[in-house]
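[scheduler] slot 2 assigned
[scheduler] job type: sequence-to-structure, two independent chains
[scheduler] chain ordering preserved from manifest
[runner] begin chain α
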Amino acid sequence: MAKLIVIDGIDGSGKATQSAKLQGALLQKGERVKKISFPDYNAKSSTLVKMYLAGDFGSDASLVNPYAVSTFYAVDRFASFSLGWKQDYSSLGYIIADRYTTSNAIHQMSKLGEEEWEGFLRWLDDLEYGKFGLPRPEITIYLDVDPEICSGLLTKRCKETGGACKDLHERDTDYLENCRKAAIYAADKLGWKVITCCDENGLLPEGIIARRVSDVLVGNNIV
């Protein structure tokens, strides 16, 4: 079985960048590796996710039922695994996931009161790993970036891509703040490895963050 490495974080934290850098580093070492990303916007299975992010179920993300939305994302992952990378998981050395089941813990758990978080994590574990049979990660890395910095980066990205509108999550800085709180809680409860990606001057260079990701993987005997 492949070693499944998950890289997650709030929107704008650099997940895609660091996943791609890690894939490149492993390929240079001659490893057999595949990178996957969620949601799978090119698949029919992401239809409900796209409706949710477009605001079809409500314009305030924090008010849309987190259990219902979690199933939207979980079904997309189930379809992606069953139809796309199940064989790769059996035959390759590494699978790198840009977001995974962990994103439900970050984004959807944040909508609940903190007294409900432990129960939500148990429910989510049973849904995605138990009922749906998705593979468990070998390690989960959480990129910890200040939500204000993420919001600025998302705005910059929108302008650079022709003014494309932010989705339901990205438009709400307070929501991103709550997601970070939920992520830190989940990291503590579930043993995620937290990488600090900022200092007093702002976001660290991509190369420094990549080295920190590599150090965590080496230190935990993943690579």
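[runner] end chain α
[runner] begin chain β
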Amino acid sequence: MGGCDKGLVPFQSQPMVAFAVELVRPFVSRVIISCNRHLPEYAVLADEVVEDSLEGFQGPLAGILAGLKVSSSDQVLVLPCDTPLLEAVLIERLFAAATASPESITVLSEGDKLHPLHAVLPRLLVDDLEQWLAGGQRAVQGWMRNHSMQLIDISDLSDQLCNLNTFQELKSLEALTSER
């Protein structure tokens, strides 16, 4: 998005990240947003804002690590800021599976296609993730596949996982949702 902070880009008159925050509030005790810039803007939406502890842009795992480190929950829900069409049914499916297998990483999928940033992670993996990153690794799926993982197939709801990476995608989705 041309260097813009995606979470703060407006979608239907509010920052994209606000959709994720509103969605998860009924399911979680605390909302933690991981970001590395515009902290005051994110802080008004979250209970806590965290930054990566590693230098430079290290990718989403560094942000996940920052959130895991400050969480007091045994399991941590991870969502990206750029999928504003998510609905409660997806969160319910994630949590139901994560509750049944609390030591596994629970990830949304469409068959074999993972959506690794839509997941519930056991906080007990924080040290392992820190070691993965310290070793120079950055691949989200690579790290996840080193652990017990359960996939939650949401092929029937895959339209909710539309993520927005360009202003053109944003405009197209706004036009489509305004027609509904």
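[runner] end chain β
[qc] chain β: The chain has a mean pLDDT of 90.
[scheduler] slot 2 released
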